Amino acid sequence: MAPPDDRASPGGVAAPIEGARLVHSGKVRDLYERPDGRLLMVASDRISAYDFVLVPEIPDKGVLLTRMSLWWFDQFSRLAPNHVVSTDVPAAVVGRAVVCEQLDMVPVECVARGYLSGSALLDYRAHGAVCGVELPAGLGDGSRLEEPIFTPATKAALGEHDENVSYEAVVETVGDDVAAELRTLTLTIYGRAEALARERGIIVADTKLEFGTRPDGTIVLADEVLTPDSSRFWPVETWRPGRVQPSYDKQLVRDWLTSPESGWDRRSDQPPPPLPDEIVTQTRATYVTAYEHLTGERFR
């Protein structure tokens, strides 16, 4: 990853770390530059939804995201190099941070979808297609696609919306060769993840990946990977197309925010209200369940 600029962005409150310079604070992660030129990426307990950073935080979320990403990076080691250099980090951020190499980040969100949900469902209902990919008629919420599709999106700044774009738009942004490799890598990684997760009772409905390039042009898997923040995880045993699916991700938070109980109007410019204690507790439990099911490891 490469720092966007020399200033912290308003994603959250990042604590100073001795010997490292804060260069970016996003919705969930804080990025510091070390004297050796490498980056320290710290996953906070912040949670975001609908382009807002919410309060309060979700206890242990940063540790869960980091552990899960490291586990997935290991599963994909033969498919693509990743940006992790070391987990030897300052004591204050042990368990929630990694040292990673600086990359020239690709300005595209690489999304793979094996099932129809979220913004893809809205696009399908409006146009019969997602990111220019025509889909059969008669699909509903949670329908499994005949084969996974690559549905890229633009990277939005904090407070702005990601926008689904066509493959042709990716070609215009990064060129034919890089676009083709991004699509191939995204679908290959998704295929591996979907098969592995299914064996553990979880459907990976979709996921968002980020890539960067080294000076020699090598494309590297970066940021986080296959976590409840960046993926839709559904229990295999309860999957029923044509309805909203139970999930092991932050859909619980989205659902509460858009419920009458929250009293929040998503169309307004007002920030969402604080999450109730029970939603915070349930969200943590959901993330722990996803971690334990996928990795087979117990979370402390």
Instruction: Kindly report the name of the CATH homologous superfamily of the largest domain.
Output: ATP-grasp fold, B domain
What integer is the average pLDDT? 93
Number of domains: 2
Looking at CATH, which topology of the largest domain would you report? D-amino Acid Aminotransferase, Chain A, domain 1
User: What is the overall shape?
Assistant: globular
Task: Encode the helix/strand succession as letters.
Answer: EEEEEHEEEEHEEEEHHEEEHH
CATH class of the largest domain: Alpha Beta
- Give the tally of β-strands: 16
Q: Outline the biggest β-sheet.
A: 7 strands, antiparallel
Counted by DSSP, the helix tally is: 6
Strand content: 15-25%
Helical residue percent band: 25-40%
Radius of gyration: 19 Å
Distance between the termini: 30 Å
Question: What does this molecule look like?
Answer:
This protein is an alpha+beta fold and 300 residues long. It has two domains: 21-100, Phosphorylase Kinase, domain 1; 104-262, D-amino Acid Aminotransferase, Chain A, domain 1 (2-Layer Sandwich), CATH 3.30.470. It contains six helices and 16 strands. The protein has helices at residues 61-75, 118-127, 167-174, 176-199, 251-257, 277-295; strands at 21-25, 29-33, 39-43, 48-49, 52-53, 84-86, 97-100, 104-105, 108-115, 129-130, 133-134, 144-150, 153-154, 202-213, 219-222, 231-235. The strands form four sheets. Strands 8, 9, 12, 13, 14, 15 and 16 form a seven-stranded antiparallel beta sheet that branches. Helix 1 (61-75) packs parallel to helix 6 and helix 3 crosses helix 4 (176-199). The chain is globular, with a radius of gyration of 19 Å. The relative contact order is 0.16. The model is unreliable at 4-11 (pLDDT under 50).
